[in-house]
Amino acid sequence: MFKNLFKKGDSDIKIYTPVNGEIVQLEEVPDPVFSQKMMGDGVAVKPVEGKICAPVDGEVIQIPDTKHAIGLRAKDGTEVLVHIGLETVSLEGKGFIVSVRTGDNVSAGQVLMEFDLEYIRENASSDMTPIVITNAQETGKQYMMTDEKEGKAGETVIITASGK
Fold it and tell me: Could you say which DSSP state residue 127 is in?
């Protein structure tokens, strides 16, 4: 009878910043695909170092051949895309070293990849790194974005999901 009474916390999930840096609102990203939330809602980080950590406990579900992004599915089904820089697909993988594979289970804070931040700054349109929920409409959850201005990878919560 009371089995589900105390389970509310089980459906909440915290998404941590995957990279150290300045947290900015998604609307400030100089790319309409992200600023107009065409890929989904989220936040972005202006990185101060070239290391991407898992923002959630979950599974790696996508790594493009160009290595410029990584997609993960949290244990609650929330899908998180970390897109390193803007227009970085044109770098064709140069400057990125991925240390996980599709299908790997990862823990929040675990290093997923490293990238050459200076190379990105010199060869891409921006180093701004959007972190978006790509399946928010399907999950039935509410997503709250942080008000924090600085993020530490694996420690600073940038998005909190609650619901179902």
Answer: -
